[in-house]
Fold these 3 entries.
Entry 1:
Amino acid sequence: MTPSPEMQALLDEIRAEVRETRLYTGRAALSERVLQAFAEVPRHAFLTDVLRPAAYANRPLPIGHEQTISQPYIVALMTDLLDLEPDDIVLEVGTGSGYQAALLAKLVKQVYSLEIVAALAETARERLHRLGYGNVEVHQDDGHAGWPEHAPFDAVIVTAAAPDIPPALIEQLKPGGRLLIPVGDRYSGQDLLLIEKDRHGRVRRNSVLPVIFVPLTGAEPTRRPP
């Protein structure tokens, strides 16, 4: 499928930004598999009519309830950093509009997605079903606890910033798995962390690059300044 001119321009911009940030991320290019999946997911379908003209701008956009659909570069980079395989089972914390889940669905066997805001969970569930993403299951719940009924996961992706990594998400990660999560707050700064669990269950964390995400709400509220 040939990308639309708007999508092609966005892909070119993402490729350029990936090259520019390679010293942070360690990646000078994204996999063609990720880029092809990205080109096939219509970002405009995950936005309200009023925001659709801005759908292929490389920036985050509001989706209501003080939440956003993330910048396309960040979505593509985080997806690539997970090193996904076709048979993987992935947990997403923070469904939002459902856009990230749709991209993951193109790349893996099954996506389980948690969203704490009931209205967003319901809308994303209906949207993903209508668009034909049958391998995504959306549940309204607090993402700090993960989804133990479907664990362990080959990969976990968190699309909101937490003060620290929720222990349950590490516990539910398979040996050999990868977890991506923004950690920190808007006042002291946030870092995108890549957590890798080896086959012995040992965990290594690496900072990828500075980011700005909305806070992860729920059982462990984001720290606020005094």
Entry 2:
Amino acid sequence: MISFFRKFRQKLISENKFTRYLIYALGEIGLVMIGILLALQVNNWNEDRKNIKKEETFLRQIHIEFDENKAQFEKIKAFHFKSLRSCEWMLSNQPFKTVSLDSLRYHSLWSRTSYTFDPSQSSIVSLVNTGAIELIREEELWAALVAWPDLMVDYLEEEKEMRAFTVNHVIPFSLDHFKLYTEEERFDAVLNFDQKQLDKYLNLIARKKRMLQAILIGLADQEHADNRNENSQVVEAIDLIISKTKSKD
């Protein structure tokens, strides 16, 4: 009987040791796992901080770039309006026999001028090409930046078409037939083309007028009642990007 109790006690002691070792081992494993999870969390936190700093850098660059783009866009838009008004003046005052030479010279010049918007896009190109666009957390800003290149293609298409038409048709015709370079010229010497040539010139001016109207005003989409032409969309996009990238400091 005594032998039985001794064996039983030794067995309990042995089992208790095993249990203590098991608990100790599980504790060690738990500590290691907690350490790994904490290390991963700290690493993720550091990466998040780095990404936030990168995003802030990009946002500052974009803000500066689009402030400049807005100033240039407003300047080009003003030039387009001046050219449009001069085209309208030329069409309303032909055949120019009773207008002042200064007015004719001024509007002849502005009716054959053409400008195109040339925005800086280096920050957006860098974001897209490097995949850093995913650093932008603000969804509306992200969408505006992604859509910007395609919006520019659509908008600049009309401007480039107008400029090509002006350079290839309006300017050559004006230089060939208008003599507006000296104040001594008489009105009857200002134009040296006949009615057929005058009609051709007025058709050129009328076409350029329509191109400028399409750029500045656009044509309403009757099916969808959408009056937001590319010009309006560019203004909205620029204002949104400037607003969303403004420093909160």
Entry 3:
Amino acid sequence: MRLTVLGTSASYAGPGQACAGHLVESGGTRVLLDCGNGVLANLSAVIDPLTLDAVFVTHEHPDHFLDLYALQALLRYAPEGPADPLPLCVPRGLFDDMGCLLSDRGNAELRAAFTVHDMLDGETTAVGDLLVTPHKTEHTGDSFALGVTDGSATLCYTSDTTLGEAVLEAATGCDLLLAEATLPEAYRGVAPHLTAAEAGELARAAGAGRLVLTHAWPTNDRDRMAAEAAAAFGAPVSVACEYDTYEVVPASEDERETRS
């Protein structure tokens, strides 16, 4: 299973960046986890978006779904005619809210582009070679971490969350933890997000094999983020950049035990 990072910025994109978006591939299966502003352009540089098998959106904040509007235009006006509707899993009510910004015609085209499924806590969706399980977390409204497995290795994407039992349950035992790290340490607790150190604490408590940080303010010091997270995790930490790829493989027990 391979993870390709398409967008790492929180709320707004810095130079050369995009907001939340991550491509997961296994065999011939391709799923997109979040589709924030700027993600579609980066996705198009990596694969043909028409080859996606499904999109999962973790919550209703615009930096996690805005490029769905662009994606529907690509799907509805594909070179060989309208593409088949793409499966889209979203928190209940999000898709209806998206339609409020559009004309009747635009709303109809948006609905024609996707087959919409409500995301429910703990309800696994099979997409080709992958199983995707949402875990409700504490952020705002209905927000979900996503567990993705190919039957061999497991990725947990926290999306946006506070540190607590809900996200710990989602992350426990994962081979690679893709964790948000929005806040500088000085802002710990002022918004429902993690700092890099909290992401490290989460990874250690969850027994994660590896930790990759994403969803950071563009102005964050990424070297400092890596150091703070590594100190809490007990092992080196990666801070993702756009187009970084990671092979998600089973972590050894030795890797987990050294941080238990």
